[in-house]
UniProtKB/TrEMBL annotation:
PANTHER family the UniProt entry points to: METHYLTRANSFERASE, METHYLTRANSFERASE DOMAIN-CONTAINING PROTEIN
Protein name: Methyltransferase type 11 domain-containing protein
Domain of life: Eukaryota
Residue ranges crossing the lipid bilayer per the database entry: none
Residues of the Methyltransferase type domain: 205-306
Entry-linked InterPro entries: Methyltransf_11, Methyltransf_Superfamily, SAM-dependent_MTases_sf
Pfam families (alphabetical): Methyltransf_11 (PF08241)
CDD domains (UniProt xref): AdoMet_MTases (cd02440)
SUPFAM superfamilies, per the entry: S-adenosyl-L-methionine-dependent methyltransferases
GO-annotated molecular function: methyltransferase activity; S-adenosylmethionine-dependent methyltransferase activity
Species assigned in the record: Vitis vinifera (Grape)
């Protein structure tokens, strides 16, 4: 098999709105998927700084998968009294990161909890949805996982905190988003332009949309497209719908759907882009396979799948301190399954071609593929 990876001088330069890029560099042969190790900079009009995206020496962190260190961490987490402490610690890391970078976590949370968001539930919730067994697991230090108002109220602040942690050198949240979100959107656009056979983007589906942060970025990037956000949590969707109503009206309103992304019930061949942003690390391997297969069914010929999530080859993630990776694993029950999954291989098995992997920031990769024309 042949894999293409770039030499160290490959770089990507984005304009302030993330809509244009120049690539330069030399490529060396490695295997069957394109991996771009990039430097990225926001143009001077965006006020950004150079950020190098560097691969580590391993295929995945040694604290993930079937390694002695991973088993040790698993044993620590399985001790319930200690797990409770770790869970609270992980939550505090997120809140502390947010507050240190001027993200008003508590204020944002209270604003949602004290609002009329609860009225959105009736129009959002699909009573016929059957939750898969894995979805009842505690996630992100919430005993109810994603099925609670507190998780939904804190989701946007947590997302902002994640973006800041991914770009510690960024001077502001705006600059961090230009890197993390801008590079992700650019990877989608570039792939679709290159492989779709028809660059028109009419319909976009954001699977695992949470409270709609990624969905709104997609809608802003492709303003002429009809965008649908789909999630298993009606609490998240209620917040997404509530927050979208507070914003200025769009040309095309975002449609919110309460459904299982593995069996959405949506029509086949009805989307040009299916995106999943920071979803797969929360899923067992069988669900990852199901989500990829369902995306293939939903996409039109020439359609693009875009999966962005933690990169197993991220140098930053491979070099996390023991405290941080133990805290992270304590709130992510399926993290090992994600890191052990050959995502590109599962995509090819589902039928996708032109599978491409790009490191879009220091921590995250975006994997794209095409439904054959």
């Amino acid at each position: 098999m042949a894999l293409w990876a770039p030499a160290q001088n490959l770089s990507v330069v984005f304009s302030a709105n993330g809509s244009e890029a120049r690539m330069r560099g030399m490529w060396r042969r490695r295997d069957s998927v394109v991996v771009r190790t990039a430097s990225s900079e926001v143009s001077s009009s965006g006020g950004g700084e150079m950020a190098a995206y560097e691969e580590g020496q391993l295929e995945r962190p040694n604290w993930a998968g079937e390694t002695p260190l991973s088993r040790l961490v698993g044993a620590i987490i399985s001790f319930k009294p200690l797990y409770s402490v770790l869970k609270l610690g992980a939550r505090q890391v997120l809140i502390s990161t947010a507050e240190k970078t001027n993200i008003p976590w508590r204020e944002m949370t209270n604003e949602i909890l004290e609002s009329d968001v609860y009225k959105e539930m009736e129009s959002i919730e699909n009573p016929s949805v059957v939750y898969p067994d894995y979805y009842s697991n505690p996630f992100h230090a919430y005993d109810e996982g994603n099925l609670s108002w507190l998780a939904a109220a804190e989701a946007e602040a947590a997302t902002m905190s994640m973006v800041r942690r991914a770009t510690p050198d960024a001077s502001s949240l705006e600059e961090a988003n230009k890197i993390v979100r801008g590079n992700w959107l650019q990877a989608i656009e570039r792939h679709h332009l290159q492989y779709s056979g028809n660059s028109t983007v009419r319909d976009i589906l954001d699977v695992g949309c949470s409270v709609g942060v990624s969905t709104r970025f997609l809608a802003d990037k492709f303003p002429s497209a009809k965008v649908t956000g789909l999630d298993l949590s009606p609490y998240f969707l209620a917040v997404a719908q509530f927050k979208e109503k507070e914003r200025a009206s769009r040309k095309n309103l975002i449609n919110w759907v309460h459904a299982n992304g593995e069996d959405s019930g949506l029509p086949s061949k009805s989307f040009d882009i299916v995106s999943m942003a920071y979803v797969l690390h929360e899923c067992p391997a069988r669900a990852i396979v199901g989500l990829v297969r369902e995306a293939f069914r939903l996409l039109r010929p020439g359609g693009t799948i875009a999966l962005t999530d933690n990169s197993p080859k991220s140098k930053v993630l491979q070099e996390l301190s023991p405290v941080l990776f133990t805290l992270m694993k304590s709130t992510e029950p399926f993290l090992d399954e994600y890191y052990l999954t050959d995502l590109e291989g599962r995509m090819r098995e589902a039928g996708f071609v032109n599978v491409t992997t790009v490191l879009t920031d220091k921590r995250h990769r975006t994997v794209t593929g095409t439904v054959p024309l």
